[in-house]
Structure formats: C-alpha cells, structure tokens
Amino acid sequence: MAPVQVKKICCIGAGYVGGPTCAVIALKCPDITVTIVDLNQARINAWNSADFDLPIYEPGLEDVVRQARGRNLFFSTDVDKGIKEADLIFVSVNTPTKKAGVGAGFAADLNYVELATRRIAAIAESSKIVVEKSTVPCRTAESMRTILEANSKPNCKFQILSNPEFLAEGTAIQDLLSPDRVLIGSLQTPEGKDACASLADVYAHWVPKDRILTVGLWSSELSKLAANAMLAQRISSINALSAICEATGANIDEVAHAVGRDSRVGSKFLRASVGFGGSCFQKDILNLVYLSESLHLPEVAAYWRQVVEMNEYQKRRFSKRVVDTLFNTITGKRIAVLGFAFKADTGDTRESAAISLVRDFVAERALVNIYDPKVPHEQIWLDLAEAMPTTPSATIQKQVTLSPSALEACKNAEAVVIATEWKEFKTIDWETVYAGMNKPAFVFDGRMIVDVEKLRNIGFKVTVIGRGERL
Ligand code: UDX
Ligand code: ADP
C-alpha cells in the first residue's frame, strides 16, 4: 500500500502549539484543508474574530491567519465533524503537570490526551493517521494506540505518529517557517513508515527534505524531552555561574561570551536571567525525572531535578537581593515590576519568574506595581491568586496595582525590577523615571538589558544579575 496523500487535516486543540502550527501548515499547503477544533468556544470565537483579535499573541501570526483563514484554514468547536472528515489528526491538547495522585508535581496529566484519543476512536468512521503533537512522556503514543485499537470500528485502522513541536513562543512563526528540523516518529512497520511518509509530504511543501528526520516512536518522544532538558540545563548552568560572578565581581555576560565562543559550546541559551519560565522547560524536565525514577534510575533523576532546583534558587536569590539591597526590608515600599510574561514577545505567563518575584514581594508586605505590554490584567490576577493560595484576594489587591505603562508603574517607587526583556524596556526614559521615584532610587535588572553606566550617571543604584558590586 502506498502512503496516503493527506487532503484534510484536523487539529484538536487551538492553543499555543496547535494554533500557530496548523495555521502555518494551511498557509504553506493550499491543497490541504486544515480545521482546528477546540472545546473552548471563547477561544474559537477569538480565532474567528472579524478584527483578528486572536487568542494568543505571536509576532507574524495574524498575517498568516489573515492569508489562510476562510481559504483552507477553519476554526470550529465541532470536534466530531473535524475528526470524521480528516485523513490526519493532530492531537495538540494541553498536558499540564499532574496536581494530584500518583506522580503529582512531576508526571504529565494525560487526561486531555486520553479524552481526545477516546473521542477519535468513538467518532472515526474511516482509517486515520493520528499525530501526537502535545509534549508528552515517552510511550504515550503506545497508550494512544491501545485506546484506539480497543475502541475503534472494524474498518478503521489507525497509525500513530509522534511529531514533537520545537517552536519557541515569540518566534513561533519563524521557527515553523524555517525549522532546524522536523522530527517524525513512527513504528518501524510498513504501515508505520507509510504514515510517516504521508506526514513528511505535508512538511515537504516548504521544509527541505534533509531537515525532515524520521525515527522510531520512542526516540521521537524522548528527543523532545531531551532537547528541552538540555536547553534548560544550559540556562541553569549559566545561572549557577552568575551567583559566583555576583560573589566575586566577575561579569556573567563576559564569562558567557568567552565560553560561548568555543564552537563546541556555542553561544545560544547562555544568557543569565532571573530564571527560565514557559510551559515546557520545567514540565518536561519533571517528566524526565519521573520517567527516570519509574525506570529505577535515581542518579539520572537527581541529575535532571537539579536543573529545576537551580532555577528555583535563582528566582529566590534575586528577590532576596532586592530585599537585602533595600536595607533588609521592603515592607510598605513601592516596587515596580516591569514585565510579567515569561519572556519577551509573548503574552504567556506560564511559570514566569515574575510570578515568583511578586509573590515574594507581597509576602514581604511591599506594594507592587506591575506593567507588562501584552499580558491581560485578568491573567495577572489569576496567576497571583494561584501563586498565593493562602493569601486573601483582598490583601493581594491591596498590595498590587496593575499599571498602564512602565513610566506609570515606576512613579513614587523605591525600586524598579526588570523581569522580562521587552524591547520597550531598553528605551525607557530613565531621566523621567528617576525624577518620579523616591531616593535613593534602585534598579534591579534581572535580564541584563540596561545601560548600567548611563543609569548610574543619572543617579540610580543599579544591580544586575550576574554582576558583583565591584565592577
Ligand atoms: C522552549 C524551547 O525553546 C522550544 O524549542 C520548545 O518547543 C518549547 O520550550 P519557549 O519556552 O517558548 O520554548 O521559550 P524559550 O525561548 O526556550 O525560553 C524559555 C525560558 O528560558 C524563558 O523564560 C527565557 O527568558 C529563558 N531563557 C532563554 C534564559 O533565561 N536565557 C537564555 O539564554 C534563553
Ligand atoms: P499548548 O501550549 O500545549 O498548545 P494550550 O493550553 O494553549 O496548550 O492549548 C490546548 C488546547 O486544547 C486548549 O485550548 C483546550 O481547550 C484544548 N483541548 C483540551 N482537550 C480537548 C479536547 N478533548 N477536545 C478539543 N480541544 C481540547
């Protein structure tokens, strides 16, 4: 049997992964009809909104959706119709870390994947290729296969593929348009290889063939966890060194530059920061830790766990440095936190270091003004409530103010804390900020973006991550 030529794709899950990925597939494959389905009506309405007020912010995304929506890209809540009509189904639902039960705090909650898979089995009337796109622990594809085979109709044959997503938020469209690689994992049977070829043909519409890697199912699933774990490990390594820099007077920027110039190390992902965030790094490492423990490999588990622990330490260390520098107390002092997203160019706040900082400042009874150019205010309130479950919301609302601009946030503050590297924070009018602040006026740069000399000349007391006082 020759590989099926894919004509209709359904993507279950219209989130950060499914939305941009399938929008780009639709853009690049005008001969394929792509329908993205989601149970969340509000999300689908936003994807369909007349003024393109999309549910996620991603540079370049609106342009892609404008070109493809209504042509061969559709958004719908009719999950069953999407499943029925498709030759190939991407499963891009959320896989948060489990909050309760076995593996709580570590293992992925596969409930959404399971429900979506069961729905496919119940609804499908013909054979389909089912592609696991969510970040999932190893062997999830096997579970999906078991569910599909146990529940499907006699004439339906399912092939499961793993096709992990490597896009980073903020650069998702660029990453999708010219990926370093596309990874497709399949069973090494003739049918598995045919399904793999069908999906490879979809990507071959725009991705050079030598960048489409086909591997076994388990290698594919593990590669996603491994790639994220190794990227996060580089950040934790440089952050560990940043603590040594602060204690010695070395400069982490200079150290990272010198180390990164070794072509064996490379210069990317060596930027010290207030700590990594995002929906993937911590979750995927904890998955790896859980997997290692399940496989009776405690040393391996401990090794990877340390990457997350170092990240927690980095966040704690930074808020402690703020308190220490402000004469050991911030009670009643106003602190401006610039940036709430986990990185620039996204409105996403999942695991953002800013959440931990604000939680620590509120616990110290400081007054906190937060400004972020993209994060919706209701999201900030939700994140703070979740981060401080025992603090009454009235207390949080009393101590925290959401400001409409960076300048506004800094007014009457004792200190400015930069938590996200938004471009606009590089061009702040620091003279005006200084004039409006209480003195001495402090700046804490958790992202190494300010011109230290310039700020010191204005009069600020400046503290930068990874730099000791003896500059
Ligand atoms: C990551 C992976 O890069 C991507 O391949 C995978 O598919 C999903 O997870 P993402 O979380 O969107 O992507 O963003 P990324 O650019 O990797 O940044 C993650 C966090 O690390 C951010 O908080 C960022 O600020 C931080 N970071 C990144 C650093 O602190 N220093 C660096 O040098 C790089
Ligand atoms: P990710 O970052 O992995 O894309 P998101 O939370 O942004 O995660 O998106 C996942 C989407 O999947 C959500 O919009 C959610 O409503 C949707 N979803 C979860 N389960 C199902 C399901 N069984 N059927 C359809 N959509 C689902």
TrEMBL record:
Name the GO terms of the biological process aspect: glycosaminoglycan biosynthetic process; UDP-glucuronate biosynthetic process
Q: Cross-referenced Gene3D superfamilies, in alphabetical order? A: Cytochrome c1, transmembrane anchor, C-terminal, NAD(P)-binding Rossmann-like Domain
Pfam families the record matches: UDPG_MGDP_dh, UDPG_MGDP_dh_C, UDPG_MGDP_dh_N
Per UniProt, the keywords (alphabetical) are: NAD, Oxidoreductase
SMART domains xref list: UDPG_MGDP_dh_C (SM00984)
Q: What does it catalyze?
A: UDP-alpha-D-glucose + 2 NAD(+) + H2O = UDP-alpha-D-glucuronate + 2 NADH + 3 H(+)
Show the active-site residues.
Answer: C280
Keyword NAD: yes or no?
Answer: yes
Q: Name one GO molecular function term.
A: UDP-glucose 6-dehydrogenase activity
Annotated EC? 1.1.1.22
Q: Please indicate if the UniProt record lists Oxidoreductase as a keyword.
A: yes
Which residues does the annotation say bind NAD(+)? 13-18, 38, 43, 93-97, 134-135, 169, 280-283, 350
Q: Which GO terms describe its cellular component?
A: nucleus
Quote the protein name from its UniProt record: UDP-glucose 6-dehydrogenase
Q: Which organism is it from?
A: Gloeophyllum trabeum (strain ATCC 11539 / FP-39264 / Madison 617) (Brown rot fungus)
